Structure formats: structure tokens, C-alpha cells
């Protein structure tokens, strides 16, 4: 389902995306559908936030939403999920633009309804996804933008901006960061947010062969994140599992009902989750969320699913599309 119209809670840095942004903005102003694709962490959400900002400045009055696997019980979730009502009226209003993130979490029927309504009203539709959305990618009139990873110069530029100091693009530190994040700006941001990165960057600058430190850079994020998880109580780990299993854009009442305030407060204090205003808590960085999801032990996943089932029944919600399953189980005991 499409969760209601949302406002951007954070403004991520955009590096090396000027050409893509110009293409998206031009297509949206012409009323053509746009699909922005890229692997998780490559910056799809950041690009969509900037596109929405530019459209608003140009007077297009963008409506913003995001795909979610949760819907209200009793609605025809394949056709008109309840919270899509926030966007469907906008799709029928000329002079607007619709920007929908995580569109791959929406059902094909839901997207088709939104797209048909937008087409009849000449409203531009901009979708972001981490997987293909055939409804748009197979449309001859659509613009499909594939976001690739950053090159070393862009990695150095982004790192310099985040740290407030110049990082030589030809230096060992930039080379190690490039290898550790594979050009993924989300993972790079998560790495640079770790206190432990400072020592590694100094060592990379001082050593004759900084490439020898590449394995330490590559494993730093996992070591640091799992150490924080290991410091949580069982209640905190369970609350964290609830957030991960609930998926992106899950309703706040659902997550709070399943996780409990004490457990959520503990994870928020640990820095693993963040909460902006009254929005649903989410991993501080997408790269951290993906790491934790792929290492979530099955016991905690099962308990989180049980708690979410109870909370969903109480809040009148249902899971209408499956969420990714765990790959391994390596959280600290």
C-alpha cells in the first residue's frame, strides 16, 4: 500500500547526481512517468527528496508518499488501500506531481490505479524503487533512471563534506573507503558516522601501503553495529527486531504496540534507531538496517512477527505483502 503523504525528514547529501536530477526534473515537468532505480543505499530516496523540493519550487505542488506492506483490514488492498486515498485525489488534480518512494513495495494493481488517475489528469508520476517496476519501465514514454555507485572522486568529495575536511581522492584513505562501501553512498555515510573510523583514516594516511587496511575498513561497520546490538537487553533486541520485521513506513502505532516504549527507548538511546518528530523509528542508516535484517536470528524474527500480529489485530492492520526473510543468524547472544 502507499502510506500517506509524507514530508522529507532528512536532507541527505547528493554527490554526482546533477545529470540524473536534471533528467528527472525535465521529464516530470513534461508530465511523463519516471522510474528511479538503484540498489539499496545508492541514494534513490535522497534523489526523490531533492526532486520533490525542486518541483515544489517550480510550482508543481508535489504530493509525496511511500510504499508499505501494511494496509487497513477491510479495505480492498489490491485496488484501493485505505491510505492511498491521500494520494489518489492529488493524482486527479492538474498541476501537481506525485513522488512515491519504495514503489516496489506497492502492489501492481495499486500502482496501476495511481498511474491511470495521474495519466487522465496529466499529472507527473515519479517512482523510486530498489527493484524493477514494469508498469513504468515498459512504458515507451517513461524515463528510467538507473543510479550507479559513486566513483572514487565522488566518494572523496562526499567524505570530505561529511567530515568537514579535505580527503585526497588519490590518497589511501579514499581508496580504502571506496573499496569498503563499493561506491554506495548510504554505506559510506554509515561508515563515516562511526567513531572508530577516525583512527583508521589516520592510519591509512600515514602508512606506506594503505590498501593493507582495506579489510579493516570493510569489516568495521559490522563489528561496530553488532557490538551495539550485543549491549542491548533482550527487550531492546526484541524492539529492534520489531522495527526491522515491520519494514519501512510501517505505522507508528503498530510498531509502538508491538515493541513497547521501553524497548524502543533503549534502542533509540543506543543510536541504532532514530526517530524524527512523530514518525516511526527507523535504522539510523539504511546500511545498518540492511545489515541487521540479514543477520536477524530466527528466534527474534519469530517473536517480532508474533508481537506484530497481536498489535496489528489491535490497530486494525494487516500485512498484505511479505517482507524479506533473514539470511543468517549472527546477532550476539
Explain what the structure shows.
GO terms for molecular function: ATP binding. Keywords: ATP-binding, Nucleotide-binding. This is ATP-binding protein. It comes from Nocardioides bruguierae. By secondary structure, the chain is α/β, with parallel strands linked by helices. The chain folds into three domains: 2-146, Rossmann fold; 152-222; 231-319, no CATH class. 49% of the residues lie in helices and 11% in strands. The protein is built from 15 helices and ten strands. It has helices spanning 18-29, 44-57, 88-91, 108-120, 134-137, 152-163, 172-181, 185-192, 197-206, 214-230, 234-246, 252-259, 261-270, 286-294, 298-315; strands spanning 2-3, 34-37, 62-67, 70-72, 97-101, 124-129, 143-146, 273-274, 282-283, 317-319. The strands form three sheets. The protein has a six-stranded mixed β-sheet, with helices on both faces. It has a two-stranded antiparallel sheet with strand order 4-10. A two-stranded antiparallel ribbon has the order 8-9. Strand 8 and strand 9 form a beta hairpin. Mean pLDDT is 82; it is low at 4-12 and 75-85.
